[in-house]
Amino acid sequence: MSKYDKVIDLALRRSFFFPAAEIYNGPAGYYDFGPVGTSLKRNFIDLWRKNLVKRDGMIEIDGSLTLPETVFKASGHLSNLVDPVVSCKKCKSFFRADKLLEEKLKKTIPENLPEKEYDKLLKRNKITCPNCHSQLTETKKTSLMFLFNAGPATKSDIIALRPETCQNIFIDFARLHKTTRIKLPIGVAQVGKSFRNEISPRQSLLRQREFAQAEIEVFFHPAREFPRFNEIKKTKLKLLPLGSSKIQEIAAEDAIKKKIISHKLIAYYLALLQQFYEKIGLRSLRLRQLSNEEKAFYAKEAWDFEVHSEDLGWVELVACNYRGDYDINSHAKGSKQDLSVLDNEEKVVPHVFELSLGIDRSIYMLLEQAYHEETVKGEQRTVLKLDPWLSPADLGVFPLVSKDGLPEFAKKVLEEVHWYDTFYDESGSIGKRYRRADEIGIPFCITIDYDSLKKKDVTIRDRDTMKQVRVKIKELNNYLYKKYY
Q1: How far apart are CA 308 and CA 322, in angstroms?
Q2: By CB neighbour count within 10 A (0-12 exposed, 13-18 middle, 19+ buried), where does 245 fall?
Q3: Fold (topology level) of 393-484
Q4: pTM confidence score
Q5: Nearest-5° angle of CA 372, CA 373, CA 379?
Q6: What distance in Å separates the CA atoms of residue 173 and residue 161, rounded to the nearest whole number?
Q7: Which whole number is the average pLDDT over 224-229?
Q8: Helix, coil or strand: residue 177
Q9: Distance between CA atoms of 324 and 26, rounded to whole angstroms?
């Protein structure tokens, strides 16, 4: 069984995530998070907010999931957000042409090549239907937008599910600038759902039709200095610049000097992003620079923050795009309104740098890299070695048996550590309970046994080392504080 299959199996068994509308065999590309996965997801978002949003005094919004079609006509998504699609002439299955080529050639294929170019590549590499090996149709660009009518079916009422959360930020920015008295540079952040009508959703959380994003749009004056760059100028960025086949660890200040990165503000936020993912425990990271053929239609400069998966190769977690003044100008033209703002008494159309983070993809990669199988004293265990701040629960609290006053005493211990997120379990052998806790990544387990009743102490077991120590209940919070802080 591959690492990917093991992670999916664990996710199903322990209620991290599972297919939506499962009992109805619902359509692909939709997932529900269970109680354990919801806790992990919430902790991830909290750490993202602490390390990026709050750190720089950004503001947050919570925008509408649906917006008028005119918003996406102005933004360019109606005409540019398309996938290259082919279908099988025999079994009628649909596939993305670029993904068929990537699987065959083992390299990244741009999503925006001309249709005839895909056809040439498919023919040259003798690619047929993966299901029945029959001939494929010619490539056709297909829109990823979900469009529908709101109210009476009139053209003026056509609206769309947003394909990215950032458009809310762009069309709200002039009001935000006026009402909150913010000054450039300023980041505006949003966590929420986006929707894309993917032709072939696959690989669980990695390619869905409904997915969660944590986006930051930083508005700035491109001609101004950015003093905060000095905070990270020595940080070694793990870059894969254009034309390079190897990851290069380059100090941020050197990346600016060599013009690998175009602006100090961009280098600053790439450094913060890399530091965030390193802090929460991800390994094998890189920032890959995108070519003109790969960049989104609105991007002047683009970097994909990627993490290496054992079975899936490099997985994009964050799209980092220098969008220039494209979005503000597009919406100013589309809405026929002046969306410029004052910056030190100068009227300016701000430029935007974007960090568009895929929450669900990040959760999958955290699970994959935290997943370990170990043999201890001849017994195999599965353990998620998640960062303690990410773990779905801080503590497991287990009475040795469910009688003789141990459960009642355990409830008193729960009251003692009430500010921690606890997982209480009194069913099954203590060994099985430890294994259940290991599988969902609980860093510490507290066991209450018969000695606890006499000596007013408990056993604390460390998830990673499996070592156990006795701690007096009155010293319990001090002990845990030192472990967490």
Answers
A1: 24
A2: exposed
A3: Rossmann fold (3.40.50)
A4: 0.93
A5: 145
A6: 20
A7: 96
A8: helix
A9: 40
